[in-house]
Specification:
The structure holds two protein chains of two kinds.
Chain A: H1 7-23, H2 36-53, H3 71-83, H4 93-106, H5 109-120, E1 126-129, E2 145-149, E3 152-163, E4 170-176, E5 187-193, E6 199-204, E7 213-224, E8 228-229, H6 235-243, H7 252-271, E9 273-274, E10 277-278, H8 283-313, H9 319-342, H10 357-370, H11 377-388
Parallel strand pairs in A: 1-4
Antiparallel strand pairs in A: 2-3, 3-7, 4-5, 5-8, 6-7, 9-10
Helix pairs in contact in A: 1-3, 3-7, 4-5, 4-6, 7-8, 7-9, 8-9, 9-10, 9-11
Chain B: H1 7-23, H2 26-31, H3 41-49, H4 62-74, H5 81-87, E1 101-104, E2 111-114, E3 121-126, E4 129-133, E5 140-142, E6 153-156, E7 163-166, H6 168-203, E8 205-206, E9 209-210, H7 215-242, H8 251-276, H9 288-299, H10 305-314
Helix pairs in contact in B: 1-4, 4-6, 4-7, 6-7, 6-8, 6-9, 7-8, 8-9, 8-10
The chains are: A alpha+beta, B alpha+beta.
The structure holds flavin-adenine dinucleotide.
Flavin-adenine dinucleotide binds near residues 128, 161, 163, 213 and 369 of chain A.
Family (chain A): Belongs to the acyl-CoA dehydrogenase family.
Pfam families (chain A): Acyl-CoA_dh_1, Acyl-CoA_dh_M, Acyl-CoA_dh_N
GO molecular function (chain A): flavin adenine dinucleotide binding; oxidoreductase activity, acting on the CH-CH group of donors
Chain lengths: ~400, ~325
C-alpha cells in the first residue's frame, strides 16, 4: 500500500496547477446561484476552456477525444481544481459523467460522432430523464410509454426530478417500449432532443427554494427511432453501463469541501461566544467536531482505496455503496452540528452578521438530498446486504 | 498512489490468517476461559515464530504489522500482543516470545493491569518516559469477574516506578504506534463480528424464512460492514503514514483517527452482532459477547475514542 504519488502523477499535477494559476484569474464572475441560464453559460464556458487546454473529458478514452487519464489522475485533477477554486463540472455533469460514457460504449458511430465532441466542447448540456412519479427506487417499473410509429417513437407520460431539465439540449431517457414483458425487459434508452412539440418542462422548487430540477410532461412527442441507443427493449442494460463507469471519484470535490467546512467550523467555534464564554470552551462541542473531522479524514482514505481499486480492476466494487452510505450520514451530522453552533443565526439561509451561515445551512440542506438522490440510503443498505454480504433477497 | 494491498502484503496477511485458523480456532480461544485467561506460553512462542512481535525489528513496517494484528483481532487472540510487539526493540526476549511483556498506563480513577500473573516484564508507559518493572513485585487485587473472561485484570493501589528504558519522546511514539496496532486488532474484531452475524442471519429462521431476509436485519449488517470498511481505510492509512508512504505529515493525528474510528466501530459491530442473535446473543455460549467485551477492553488502551476525539479537535 502506498499513498504517495508517482513522479508521473506529480508532474501531471504540476502542469495542471501551473495552467490553473494562469487561467483562473481571467475568468468572469460567477452568476447568481438561481440564474440557471447564466450558470449554463458559465459552466459551458469553463468546459470550452478545459477543452482548448486539452483537459476535457479527463476520464474519457483518448480515441473519443478524452484525456484517457487514470482514476488517480482524475483524483489529482479534482484536487487541483478544488484547490484553485476553479468552476465545477456543474451542468456538464450528466453529459460528461453519465450520457457520454454510455454513448461511448453503446452508441452507433453516427451518434458518437455527433454527440461526443459537442459534450466535450461544452456545446450541449444533457439531463437525465430516468425517474418518474411512480418509479423512483423501483426505477425499472417506469411507465413513460414510447410507441413505434414508422421511423419514430411517439412518447407519452411523465418524468420527474430531472436536474437541469430547463436548460438542457438533450436528455438521456428511459422509456417503456414493451409493457407486456417483465419490467426490466421492456425498456429502451433514447436520446431526446429537448424542446420538441408536445413537451412541457416545469421547474420544481426544491426545499431550498431553488429550481435545480424539473418535471417533464410528454404528450405524443415524436423522436426518431434512429435516436435509440442499443437494441429495443435492451435499455435497462444500457442504463446500467453508466453505473459501471464510476471510478470512485464522484464525491471527491464534495469531500474536499466538507473537510474544509468542518475545519472552518472549528475556527468559527473559536470566535463565537456562548453565555459570555467562547463556544470552543465547550468540551462536548470540541469532541463532536473532532470526531466529525476524524471521520471525514477516514472517508477520504476510503475514497483513495476505492480509486486504487478502480485503477487496478476497473471497478469500484463494494466501496462505492459503502462510501455513499457513510458520507450521506456524516455530512448530515456535520450540518446538524453547524446549525447547533450557529443557533438562531442558522435561521437565515444567507450569511448574517458576518457569519458564514450560507455555507453551513446550504450544506445541511444539501446533505438531506445525499441520502435520496442516486439511490436512497435504504436502497444502498439493501445492496450492501444482498450483493456484498450475500443475504437472501426479500422479493 | 496504490492504496490496495500489494502481493507481499496480501500473502503475509494470508499466512498469519492460516496459521491462526489452524492453531487457535475459536474453540481453543474459548477453552482458555477455564484457566482464567492464563496465557499459553507455547502459543506465545509460536506467535513469535510467525513474526507477530518482531515484524518491525525484522525490517517490516507498521503496514505489515497492522495486517497481522487485524488477523489477531479477528481470531480473538488474547494477551499483551501490542505491548510485546512494542517492547521487541528494547526488552530482550520480547521479540522471540521467550518473555511475555505487558504494559500499563497509569489511569484515573484506577490503574488496572491485564494478565499480571502471566507476565515476565511489565512496562509502565507514562508521559515522561517508559519504565520497566518486575511484575512479581507488583501488588494489586485481581478482579474476581473480569468483564472479558479472557483478559484477567488486576487493580493496583500504587503505580510502581521501575527502571527507565525510554524518554518522553519515545513514550509518545509508543503511544502512537500502540494506537495503530490496537486499531488493527479492533478492525479484526469488526470483521469477525460481521462474519458471525451474517452466518447466523442466514441460518436462523423465523416466520418461515431466514432472519437475514428481513430488511431490518439486513440494514443492521449493512451498517456493520459500512463502519468496518471506513475503519479499514483509516487504519491502513495511519499505518502507511508511519511507514513514510503516506499523505499526511501529522502521524499522531492520523493514528488518533484510526484509534477513534476503530474503537467506535468495534463497539458498534460487537453490540449489533449481539442484537442480530436475539436471545442467543445474550448467552455465554455465543461468541458475540466475546467480541463486544474485547472491544470494550481495547477501547481503553492508549486512550478511548472520546479522548481521541477531544485530542483530534485540539489540533484543528
Ligand atoms: C436533488 C435530486 C436530484 C435528482 N436528479 C435526478 C435526475 O437528474 N434524473 C433522474 O432521473 N432522477 C433524479 N433524482 C431522483 C432520484 O433518483 C430519486 O428521488 C430516488 O431514486 C428515490 O426515488 P423516489 O424519490 O421515488 O423515492 P421512493 O422510491 O418513493 O422512496 C421513498 C422512501 O421509501 C424508501 N424505499 C423505497 N424502496 C425501498 C426498499 N426497497 N427498501 C427500503 N426502503 C425503500 C426510500 O428509501 C425512501 O426513504 C434526483 C433526486 C434528488 C433528490
Amino acid at each position: 500500500m502506498d499513498l504517495q504519488f508517482t513522479d508521473a502523477e506529480n508532474s501531471f499535477r504540476n502542469e495542471l496547477r501551473h495552467w490553473l494559476a494562469g487561467v483562473i484569474p481571467t475568468l468572469p464572475g460567477e452568476p447568481h446561484r438561481d440564474d440557471w441560464v447564466g450558470r449554463r453559460d458559465y459552466d459551458t464556458m469553463w468546459q470550452r476552456t478545459l477543452f482548448e487546454a486539452g483537459y476535457a473529458g479527463i476520464n474519457w478514452p483518448k480515441e473519443y477525444g478524452g484525456l484517457g487519464a487514470t482514476p488517480t489522475e482524475h483524483l489529482i485533477f479534482l484536487e487541483e481544481t478544488e484547490r484553485a477554486r476553479a468552476p465545477y463540472v456543474g451542468q456538464n455533469f450528466v453529459g460528461l459523467l453519465h450520457a457520454g460514457p454510455t454513448l461511448i460504449t453503446e452508441a452507433s458511430p453516427e451518434q458518437k460522432a455527433f454527440h461526443l465532441p459537442a459534450i466535450l466542447k461544452g456545446e450541449h448540456i444533457w439531463c437525465q430523464g430516468f425517474s418518474e412519479p411512480g418509479a423512483g427506487s423501483d426505477l425499472a417499473s417506469l411507465s413513460c410509454r414510447a410507441i413505434r410509429d414508422g421511423d419514430d417513437y411517439v412518447i407519452s407520460g411523465q418524468k420527474i426530478w430531472t436536474s437541469f431539465g430547463h436548460t438542457a439540449d438533450y436528455c438521456e431517457m428511459l422509456v417503456r417500449t414493451d409493457p407486456d414483458v417483465p419490467k426490466h425487459r421492456g425498456i429502451s434508452w433514447l436520446i431526446l432532443p429537448m424542446g420538441q412539440p408536445g413537451m412541457d418542462v416545469r421547474p420544481l422548487r426544491t426545499m431550498e427554494g431553488s429550481t435545480e430540477f424539473c418535471e417533464v410532461f410528454f404528450d405524443e412527442v415524436r423522436v426518431p427511432v434512429a435516436n435509440r441507443v442499443g437494441a429495443e427493449n435492451d435499455g435497462w442494460r444500457v442504463a446500467m453501463v453508466t453505473l459501471s463507469f464510476e471510478r470512485g471519484t464522484a464525491f471527491v470535490s464534495e469531500m474536499l469541501q466538507s473537510m474544509e467546512l468542518a475545519r472552518d467550523l472549528a475556527q468559527l467555534a473559536k470566535r463565537i461566544t456562548r453565555n459570555g464564554a467562547s463556544a470552543w470552551d465547550d468540551a462536548g462541542l470540541r469532541r463532536d467536531i473532532g470526531r466529525i473531522c476524524a471521520e471525514l479524514d477516514a472517508l477520504w482514505a476510503l475514497t483513495k482505496r476505492n480509486i486504487s481499486q478502480a485503477q487496478r480492476t476497473g471497478l469500484v466494487g463494494p466501496g462505492g455503496n459503502v462510501f455513499k452510505l457513510a458520507y450521506a450520514e456524516l455530512r448530515s451530522k456535520l450540518g446538524e452540528l453547524a446549525m447547533h453552533l450557529l443557533d438562531r443565526a442558522s435561521l437565515s439561509i444567507d450569511d448574517v452578521g458576518q457569519l458564514p451561515t450560507h455555507a453551513h445551512v446550504h450544506g445541511r440542506i444539501h446533505a438531506l438530498s445525499l441520502g435520496i438522490a442516486a439511490g436512497t440510503s435504504q436502497v444502498q443498505r439493501n445492496i450492501v446486504a444482498e450483493r456484498i454480504l450475500g443475504l437472501p433477497k426479500d422479493r | 498512489m496504490d492504496f490496495e494491498l500489494n502481493d507481499d502484503e496480501r500473502s503475509l496477511q494470508e499466512g498469519i490468517r492460516s496459521f491462526l485458523t489452524g492453531r487457535c480456532p475459536i474453540e481453543v480461544v474459548r477453552a482458555n476461559e477455564e484457566t482464567g485467561g492464563a496465557l499459553d506460553r507455547t502459543l506465545w512462542r509460536e506467535l513469535a515464530d510467525v513474526g507477530v512481535f518482531s515484524l518491525r525489528t525484522d525490517g517490516f513496517g507498521m503496514t505489515e504489522s497492522v495486517l497481522a494484528f487485524e488477523e489477531l483481532g479477528r481470531s480473538l487472540v488474547a494477551g499483551p500482543l501490542v505491548a510485546s510487539h512494542l517492547a521487541a526493540s528494547v526488552v530482550a526476549g520480547a521479540g522471540d516470545g521467550s518473555r511475555i511483556v505487558g504494559l500499563l498506563e497509569p489511569a484515573e480513577p484506577v490503574t488496572m493491569v491485564e494478565h499480571l500473573a502471566s507476565l515476565d516484564d511489565l512496562i509502565v508507559l507514562r508521559n515522561d518516559g517508559i519504565f520497566v518493572v518486575e511484575p512479581s513485585g507488583v501488588i494489586g487485587v485481581l478482579a474476581e469477574r473480569p468483564l472479558d473472561a479472557l483478559t484477567p485484570i488486576t487493580r493496583l493501589d500504587d503505580v510502581p516506578d521501575g527502571q527507565r528504558i525510554g524518554d518522553a519522546a519515545m513514550a509518545l511514539q509508543w503511544r502512537r504506534d500502540g494506537m495503530v496496532l490496537t486499531a488493527g486488532l479492533q478492525l479484526g474484531l469488526c470483521l469477525a463480528s460481521i462474519d458471525l452475524a451474517k452466518t447466523y442471519a442466514m441460518q436462523r429462521e423465523q416466520f418461515g424464512r431466514p432472519i437475514g431476509s428481513f430488511q431490518a436485519v439486513k440494514h443492521m449488517l449493512a451498517d456493520m460492514l459500512t463502519k468496518a470498511e471506513v475503519t479499514r481505510a483509516a487504519v491502513y492509512a495511519a499505518a502507511v503514514n508511519i511507514d513514510g508512504r503516506g499523505d499526511s505529515s501529522d502521524l499522531m493525528q492520523t493514528a488518533r483517527m484510526a484509534k477513534l474510528l476503530a474503537g467506535d466501530s468495534a463497539l458498534f459491530c460487537g453490540k449489533t452482532c449481539i442484537q442480530v442473535h436475539g436471545g442467543m446473543g445474550f448467552t455465554w455460549e455465543v461468541d458475540a459477547q466475546r467480541y463486544w467485551k474485547r472491544a470494550c477492553v481495547l477501547d481503553t488502551h492508549f486512550g478511548n475514542s472520546d479522548e481521541h476525539a477531544a485530542a483530534f479537535s485540539a489540533a484543528l
